[in-house]
Amino acid sequence: MPLLVLTALVGGVGGVGCASTPDEPDLVTPAPGQAAQAIINPQRSAAAYTEAVRIQVNNAMSDFCSGVLVSPYVVLTAAHCIIFNVGGTWTINAPFAVGGSQTRTALSGEPMDAASYSLTYANYDSHPELHDLGLIYLSTPFTGITYPTLTSTRYPIGATHPAVSAVGRASVSASAGLVLSPQTTLSTTAAGYTFDNNTPRVTTAGDSGGPLFLEGTHTLVGTETRFSSLSPGAIDYWARLDDSADSMVYSFISNRVASHGGWYATLTAFRDEVSNALCARVSSCCDAASPGYTLSSSKCHAIYDQFGFEATARGIQTANPANVTVNAAVKDACIQKITTNAADCSITSAEVKAAITDCLSAVTGLLPAGAACTSSLECAGSAVCAQDAAGSGTCQALRSVGQSCEVLYKTGSDVYKRDNLAQDLCSKRGGGQSGLFCDAYDPVLGVHRTESTWTCKVVHGAGAACNTDSYCSSFVCDPTTFTCAANASFVNTSVCSAFAGP
Questions:
Q1: Mean pLDDT throughout 79-101?
Q2: pTM flag (> 0.85)
Q3: Contact 434, 308 (CB under 8 A)
Q4: HEC profile for 138-174?
């Protein structure tokens, strides 16, 4: 399983550069037509690791390496995958993204230590005082990715660790598939900054920056930086990702993730993934019923962008990233439920509601009852963020049938009641998951009601007036009649007609 490939180096033992030291960097100079090198066996499928990526360094040497997505906009890799491409671009490929392989182009990146920019191909591996870690920043996020878990706590020196395994290329080739290594044992020494995590060797040249996980999990414990090919005792060295007196890697990564989208980007991408999946299913089913059908993306997304995050994107936009976590595996599983067999239009609205409810369960708030909040996404359990007219909120218990769900806010001298804040007081995140909704909108007049106090009511049955799907027990508000549809096919003639167009 090769690590990074950086060309134009003097060949060393096993075809890698810098043969003057027994610890070799993951740099190779593949000759034209060179056969793929043998790799450590057996290889296992890495398909579960949607976060693992291949990186093409778009420089004069056509270097390539590996990496791991730690958020929608941030790729973690080795510093030497970045420092030899100043002002250049990187092509990132996620071969196992849910829905199929995806590729993005990145325009910027940085090593953890700015001093790394002064290094050359010949000497970069001779500076253990510098962290061989870097980040590449995306302008367009990937979708369908399970993001790894990192920890700021260092593994104890000399402790017995669980089994680990690495993801890397199947051969020394820019286009080689990614595979999972055999499981092996992680050791921690007191050697220094970057090289004090190691395993028996499970890689070969070409995978620099590739991830090392606790076996069977998405817990990321290191990224590949170099290896020793001397026998016996060939070793892989893995960059530490924790915080300690001499290595504040976790803080570096966390700070950069926060400044490049943070969890806001994750939640936004999550919303878009669900909306995209629902609209793709509508398009497929309507085309099957009427070949040549054209879906209006804007009409469809106007509805499904509100699939349940407090009835609008407001919860995503206002949530404090520090108070929210997202279980990416749960999120991907729910989206898979929506996208599987997309041409099967017999799916019922109840099934769609169940899938969306599963999606919502991936978002977890961390704030206890009574804590100040700006979004119900931040509140733990079933608690919701109840806000006053000034916009100040606290995490409070979910309201019950008959209780007020009135929320006030001022614009100039007027006072309004608005349901995009009130919906989640009766059913967290506004999706009707509790069986209640806030009666806050007049679907006949198409206006927010101001003449009466809004209360939590039981979701409506078929034929009742509605404004959004969350008003209906069937979870389908017919967009042409604004009445609750029966629990029938999720995609029907009315839906196809309402969403048709350019």
A1: 92
A2: no
A3: no
A4: ECCCCCCCCCCECCCCCCCCCCCCCEEEEEEECCCCC
**What's the total number of domains in the chain?**
2
CATH code of residue 183: 2.40.10.10
Coil, strand, or helix at residue 69? strand
- Tell me how many degrees the CA angle 211-46-260 measures, rounded to the nearest 5: 45
Separation in Å, CA 145 to CA 91, 148, 335: 17, 9, 11
Report in angstroms the alpha-carbon separations of 60 from 88, 118, 311, 373: 10, 18, 50, 51
The answer, yes or no, to whether the previous bond of 141 is cis (omega within 30 of 0) is no
Burial class for 415, CB neighbours closer than 10 Å (0-12, 13-18, 19+): exposed
> Which backbone phi and psi does 275 adopt, to 5 degrees?
-60, -45
Q: Helix %, strand %, coil % for the chain, to 5?
A: 25, 30, 50
Residues 127 and 189 in one domain: yes
What residue type is assigned to position 97 of the chain? A
User: Last residue of some domain: 260, 291, 319?
Assistant: 260
Name the DSSP letter for residue 95: T
Same domain, 212 and 303: no
DSSP readout, 171-228? SSSTTPPEEEPPPEE-EE-SS-SSSSEEEE---EEE-TT-EEEETTS-BEEEEEEEEE
256 and 267 belong to one structural domain: no
Q: Which of 241, 260, 279 is the last residue of a domain?
A: 260
Residue 304 in tokens: 């499904």
| Rounded Cα distance, 419 and 406, in Å | 8
CB 437 within 8 A of CB 486: no
Q: Which residue has the higher pLDDT, 40 or 464?
A: 464
Average pLDDT, the chain: 74
> Domain range for residue 278?
263-498
Q: Which of 334, 345, 366, 320 is nearest to 431 (CA)?
A: 334
Residue 404, amino acid: S
Percent of the chain with pLDDT over 90: 16
Judgement on whether residues 251 and 303 belong to the same structural domain of the protein: no
Q: What are phi and psi of 148, to 5 degrees?
A: -75, 165
pLDDT at 15: 24
Q: Do 172 and 289 sit in the same domain of this protein?
A: no
Write out pLDDT tens, residues 276-285: 777 887 888 8
Provide the token pair at 262.
């943070």
218 and 311 together in one domain: no
- CA dist 280 → 237, 312, 360 (Å): 44, 20, 19
| Lookup: tokens for 1 | 């399983």
My answer on whether 212 and 295 are in the same domain is: no
- Are 302 and 371 in the same domain? yes
pLDDT in tens, 408-451: 544 444 544 444 444 567 877 656 667 887 776 554 445 545 44
